[in-house]
Write a structure and sequence with these properties.
- The chain is built from 9 helices and no strands.
- By secondary structure, the protein is an all-alpha fold.
- The longest helix has 14 residues.
């Protein structure tokens, strides 16, 4: 004969008025994780069981149980704080390098010693190193940094060049 009577129901502990107000505010959070956690706790406070909450919110029963246990043990503030944003190692190149690469993109490659009228990612990476912008950079990183600024290396204009020192002046006259 078995003594198993079924699993015990798990609910969040009774909340204080301040905790309840924080829960209501967190449900309207623009952060999806915080909002979802608040919904789980609100459903538990309203008397919903773990399987019902998991199905309603679309999460596993284990995750819902863990969240309720943490809230009961450490308080609801511990589960409603926004999740940490920094994951992995920090970026090596920031906005300053991206802006400088965008500036290089708007200059003719010949100004930096390249015998071409169009930039390539490899040439941009080499130019960044030659100008002292960075010690070393991969062409794929150049691509990612330009993309972060809404630019593409393919947007670089074809630059017509000439050894004539008066070329830019003559070229300006020809456009009028």
């Amino acid at each position: 004969m078995s003594h198993y009577m079924g699993a015990m129901a798990l609910y969040v502990r009774p909340l204080t008025k301040a905790e309840h107000a924080a829960l209501v505010k967190a449900r309207r959070s623009s952060n999806g994780t915080t909002s979802r956690r608040a919904i789980v706790l609100a459903l538990s406070e309203a008397g919903s069981k773990v399987p019902e909450i998991a199905q309603t919110v679309g999460l596993s029963q284990g995750w819902v149980r863990k969240l309720i246990h943490t809230a009961n043990r450490e308080g609801i503030a511990s589960v409603l704080r926004p999740p940490r944003k920094c994951m992995g190692r920090p970026r090596r190149f920031g906005e300053q390098v991206a802006v400088a690469l965008e500036g290089l993109l708007n200059e003719p490659p010949s100004r930096h010693g390249f015998e071409t009228t169009r930039w390539t990612l490899s040439d941009l990476a080499q130019a960044a190193q030659i100008t002292g912008l960075v010690d070393s950079i991969d062409p794929a990183t150049v691509w990612r940094l330009l993309l972060s600024r809404g630019k593409s290396w393919k947007q670089a204009k074809r630059r017509m060049t000439s050894p004539d020192p008066e070329y830019q002046e003559k070229r300006g006259c020809a456009r009028r």
